[in-house]
Amino acid sequence: MPKHEFTVDMTCEGCSNAVTRVLNKLGGVQFEIDLPNKKVCIDSEHSVDTLLETLKKTGKTITYLGAK
Amino acid sequence: VNSVTIAVEGMTCNSCVQTIEQKIGKENGVHLIQVSLEKKIATIIYDSRLQNPGSLQETIDDMGFEASLPD
Ligand SMILES: [Cu+2]
Ligand SMILES: [Cu+2]
User: Fold this and answer.
1) How many whole angstroms separate alpha carbon B60 and alpha carbon A55?
2) DSSP 3-state assignment of B65?
3) What is the CATH number of the domain that holds B28?
4) Structural domain of residue B52, as residue ranges?
5) B54 and chain A: CB distance < 8 Å anywhere?
6) Which of A35, A37, A64, B4 is the most exposed place for a label (fewest CB within 10 A)?
7) Which domains does chain A have, with CATH numbers?
8) What DSSP state is assigned to residue B69?
């Protein structure tokens, strides 16, 4: 599965839990969240646009870093 | 114009509060939102032509915070 890396402006556990919830709601994803480095790495067949839209729902600033 | 109080779980600090206030405050028809971290609630004043308690609850829930309406 393609692996995509994003920066998500997370500052606390509440943020990373919110990211976890929106991604689980979307489904079809496997992911790792690195809170100290503000990075989220997602394994998914979803398009980058779909993943970006989903992450943006958290209200955080998101940047796509690229495929890994 | 109406107001609703929504229970919000999962906020851990003030930046969570601000994220919700900023995002929901920008939604169409929302006049005012005030979030309390201690009480775990969001009080929203909204235009009932553009929003309703269910739509507001859903938008907070979509942000990744567990939101529920009072019964
Ligand atoms: Cu946070
Ligand atoms: Cu927080």
Assistant:
1) 14
2) coil
3) 3.30.70.100
4) 2-68
5) no
6) A37
7) 3-67 (3.30.70.100)
8) -
- Partners of B8 in the beta sheet? B67
Q: Mutate which of A19, A55, A58 to disrupt the B interface (most B C-beta within 10 Å)?
A: A58
How far apart are alpha carbons B20 and A27 in whole angstroms? 23
B62 vs A contacts (CB less than 8 Å): 22, 25, 57
User: How far away is chain B from the Cα of A3, in angstroms, using its nearest Cα?
Assistant: 22
State the total domains in chain B.
1
Q: What is the pLDDT of residues A34-52, one digit of tens each?
A: 999 999 999 999 999 999 9
CA dist., res. B65 & res. A58, Å (int) = 9
Q: Are A21 and A57 in contact (CB under 8 A)?
A: no
pLDDT score, position A4:
98
pLDDT at A1 over 90: no
ipTM: 0.91
Q: How far is the CA of B15 from the centre of ligand 1 (A)?
A: 5
Residue A68 pLDDT > 90, yes or no? no
